[in-house]
Amino acid sequence: MLNELFKRLGIVHMYSTPYHPQTNGQIERFNSTMDSKIASLSNSSRSDWDDQLPYVIFNYNTSSHSTTNTIPFELMYGRSPILPCDMQDPMVSLQIDPQYSTKLREHVSSLTTNAQHNLRSIQQTYKTRFDANRSNPSYAINDLVLIKTSKSRRKFDVRHEGPYRIIQRLTNKTYIVQHVHLHHLTQQVTVDSIIPLISRHTST
User: Fold this and answer.
1) How many CA atoms lie within 13 A of 176 on its CB side?
2) Treating both helix axes as pointing N-terminal to C-terminal, what angle do 49-61 and 25-41 enclose, rounded to 10 degrees?
3) What value does the mean pLDDT take over residues 127-143?
4) d(CA 60, CA 73)
5) Distance CA 170, CA 18 (A)
6) Chain center to CA of 175
7) How far is Cα 180 from Cα 182, in angstroms, rounded to an integer?
8) Do 144 and 197 form a contact (C-beta atoms < 8 A)?
9) Cis peptide leading into 81, omega within 30 of 0?
10) Could you write out the DSSP letters of every residue in 118-140?
C-alpha cells in the first residue's frame, strides 16, 4: 500500500544507515536550519519552541533556497507570497480568466522543472567536490575492523569499538559486521565508520 502511494507520487524510497547523516542530507540540512531559527526566537529556557513553529515554517517556505533557487511557497501556489511588510492596495480587483487553471498548472510545472534542474546541478557540484577529497576503501569478508563509536563521549572516552569481523557486503559502501568475541553483536555500518585492523604477526 505504502509502496503504491510512493509510486503514484513519484517518490523514491531510500533507506539510510544509522548514524550516517550524509544519506539523509536534505533532511539533516532542513533540521539544522529549523533548529537555528527556533533557537533564535525561543525564550532563554527554550520552553516555548512549539509556539514559534508557525513563524519559522512561514519564514522557511517564503525564503529563496540556494539549492533550488526557488521559493517553496511559489512552487506550491504558483505565486509569490504576500508578506506583512509588503505594501498592499486597499482596492482589490479580480479578473475572470477562463484559462486561469491551465495557465497556473503550466506555470507551476515550469517552476518545478527549473527547481529540479537547479537541484540536480548543485548536487552534481557537491558530489564532484566530495569525490575529489575522499578515499575509496574496500573490505573483504572476514577482514578485522574497528567501528567508530556512535555514543556521545567525553575527551578521553574510547573512540572505537571492536574488534569486529566483516561478515557480509551489502553495497560498495555498506557492510554487516559481527563482534569477534560477542557474536550476538552485529550491526550495519558504512565505510566512514570502519577502521581497518591489521593483525601483527610475531616471529619465533
Assistant:
1) 8
2) 120
3) 82
4) 9
5) 14
6) 21
7) 6
8) yes
9) no
10) HHHHHHHHHHHHHHTT-------
The size of the chain, in residues, is: 204
167 and 80 inside one domain: no
Q: What is the pLDDT of residue 202?
A: 53
Q: From the centroid of its chain, how far is CA 11?
A: 15
CA–CA separation, 87 and 10 (whole Å)? 39
Provide the b/e sequence for 131-158 (b: ≥16 CB within 10 Å). eeeeeeeeeeeebbbbbeeeeeeeeeee
Terminal C-alpha separation, the chain: 64
Same domain, 28 and 114: yes
List the beta bridge partners of residue 186: 178
Kind plus residue range of the DSSP H or E element containing 115: helix 100-131
Establish if 153 belongs to a structural domain: yes
The pLDDT of 160-171, averaged and rounded, is 90
Q: What is the dihedral of CA 77, 80, 85, 89, to 10 degrees?
A: -90
For residue range 46-87, list pLDDT tens digits in order. Answer: 888 899 999 999 999 999 988 888 999 999 999 888 888 888
Are 163 and 192 part of one and the same domain? Answer: yes
Determine the structural domain holding residue 165 and report its residue range: 144-196
The pTM of this model reads: 0.59
- Same-domain check for residues 156 and 72: no
Residue 203: pLDDT above 60? no
The CATH number of residue 74's host domain is: 3.30.420
Can you give the pLDDT at residue 191? 87
